[in-house]
Write a structure and sequence with these properties.
Helix 7 (172-181) links the parallel strand 5 (161-165) and strand 6 (185-189). With 300 residues, this protein is an alpha/beta fold. The protein has ten helices and eleven strands. The protein has a six-stranded parallel beta sheet with strand order 1-11-8-7-5-6. A three-stranded parallel beta sheet has the order 3-2-4, with helices on both faces. It has two domains: 30-119, Leucine Dehydrogenase, chain A, domain 1 (Rossmann fold), CATH 3.40.50.10860; 141-271, NAD(P)-binding Rossmann-like Domain (Rossmann fold). 40% of the residues lie in helices and 16% in strands. Bound molecules: 5,10-Methenyltetrahydrofolate and magnesium ion. 5,10-Methenyltetrahydrofolate (GUE) binds at residues 50, 96-99, 121, 141, 232, 247, 266-268, 271-272, 274-275. Magnesium ion binds next to loops. This is Bifunctional protein FolD.
C-alpha cells in the first residue's frame, strides 16, 4: 500500500492562516501588532535565504518583522547589547538568533541572554527545563511542527512506540519530550545505538533528525509506520546537469514510502511547518506578554 503523503506545505499554510486570524484579532481588539526580531550574524548564503523567507512570512501574516544583520566579526559584547535592547523593546515579542553563529561567539551564552518569554526558538535553558517538566514554555519550532502533523494524522498518540533518531538539543531531545508528553513510549537513537535497524523496525512513529542524506532505508520501516523526516540535505544531482543539486531528507523516501503508512516529503514537509510554528510562537508570546488568552491549537 502506498503511503499517505503528509503535506507539510499545505498544513503550514493552514497554520499561517490561523496565525493571521489571531494577529488580526490582536490588532482590532487590543491594538497590538506582534513583532518578531531575527538576528543574523555573518553572510552564510543558506542562512540569508532562511532569514529572508522568515521575514516574508512574518509580514504576510500581519506581524512586524525586524531584521538585524550584523557582520561576521561582530563582538560578543555588541551582540549581547543588541539582544538586551530587543529584550526591553515592547514592540518585539519574539527574538530569533539564527544559528549557527560564527565560531568566536558562545552560542549557549547568547541564547541564554534572550528573555525566555521572547525566546520563540525555545532554546533558552529555562524553556528547555519547563518543557522537560511539562510546564508552559516556548516549544522549539521544528519539533512542534512535527507534533502537529503527528496529531493531525493519528488523533491520539497515546501508547505508540516512537523512535527519534538524533539527540540534538534543537530537534531530537525536545521532540522526545513532546512525544513523551503525548504518552508515546519513546526511544532516542543516535550514532552509537546498537542495532539501529532493529530499533527503528519496532517503531510506530519514526522521526529522523540526524542530518545525513537518505541514511534510513525503507527496509528499516515497519509496515504502516508514520515517518517524519526532519533532514534537509543538499546533495549533488548530476542527473539534473553539471553542478546541479537537490534536497533530500534523512530517509530514503522512495523505499520508505513503499512501507510507511504516512510520510513527510523533503522539501515540503517539516521545513515549512518550522517557519509556520515560529510565527505561531510569536503570536503566543505576544498574547502571554499582554495577559491575553493564547491561540488554541498553536501550542503544544
Ligand atoms: N535559531 C534558528 N532557528 C531555526 O529554526 C533555524 C536556524 N536558527 N538556523 C537554520 C535552520 C534551518 N531552518 C529551516 C527552516 C525552514 C526550512 C524550509 O522551509 N525548507 C524548505 C525548502 C527550502 C529550500 O528549498 O531550500 C522545505 O523543507 O520545504 C529549512 C530550514 C531553520 N533553522
Ligand atoms: Mg547524533
Amino acid at each position: 500500500m502506498a503511503a499517505t503523503v503528509i503535506d507539510g506545505k499545505a498544513f503550514a499554510a493552514k497554520v499561517r492562516g490561523q496565525v493571521a486570524e489571531h494577529v488580526a484579532r490582536l490588532k482590532e481588539e487590543h491594538g497590538i501588532t506582534p513583532g518578531l526580531a531575527v538576528v543574523l550574524v555573518g553572510e552564510d548564503p543558506a542562512s540569508q535565504v532562511y532569514v529572508r523567507s522568515k521575514g516574508k512570512s512574518t509580514v504576510e501574516v500581519g506581524m512586524n518583522s525586524f531584521e538585524h544583520k550584523l557582520d561576521a566579526g561582530t563582538s560578543e559584547a555588541d551582540l549581547l547589547a543588541l539582544i538586551d535592547q530587543l529584550n526591553s523593546d515592547p514592540k518585539v515579542h519574539g527574538i530569533l538568533v539564527q544559528l549557527p553563529l560564527p565560531g568566536h561567539l558562545d552560542e549557549d551564552l547568547v541564547i541564554n541572554s534572550i528573555a525566555p518569554e521572547k525566546d520563540v526558538d525555545g532554546f533558552h535553558i529555562s524553556n528547555v527545563g519547563l518543557l522537560g517538566t511539562g510546564q508552559k514554555s516556548m516549544v522549539p519550532c521544528t519539533p512542534l511542527g512535527c507534533l502537529m502533523m503527528l496529531r493531525e494524522h493519528h488523533g491520539s498518540l497515546s501508547g505508540l512506540d516512537a523512535v527519534v533518531i538524533g539527540r540534538s538539543n534543537i530537534v531530537g531531545k525536545p521532540m522526545a519530550q513532546l512525544l513523551l508528553g503525548d504518552s508515546c513510549t519513546v526511544t532516542i537513537a543516535h550514532s552509537r545505538t546498537k542495532d539501529l535497524p532493529d530499533v527503528v523496525r519496532r517503531a510506530d512513529i519514526v522521526v529522523a533528525a540526524v542530518g545525513r542524506p537518505e541514511m534510513v532505508p525503507g527496509d528499516w520501516i515497519k509496515e504502516g509506520a508514520t515517518v517524519i523526516d526532519v533532514g534537509i540535505n543538499r546533495i549533488d544531482a548530476p542527473e539534473k546537469g553539471e553542478g546541479k543539486t537537490r534536497l533530500v531528507g534523512d530517509v530514503d523516501y522512495a523505499s520508505a514510502a513503499e512501507r510507511a503508512g504516512a510520510i513527510t516529503p523533503v522539501p515540503g514537509g517539516v521545513g515549512p511547518m518550522t517557519i509556520a510554528c515560529l510565527l505561531a510562537n510569536t503570536v503566543t508570546a505576544a498574547c502571554r506578554a499582554n495577559n491575553l488568552a493564547e491561540p488554541e491549537g498553536l501550542t503544544a
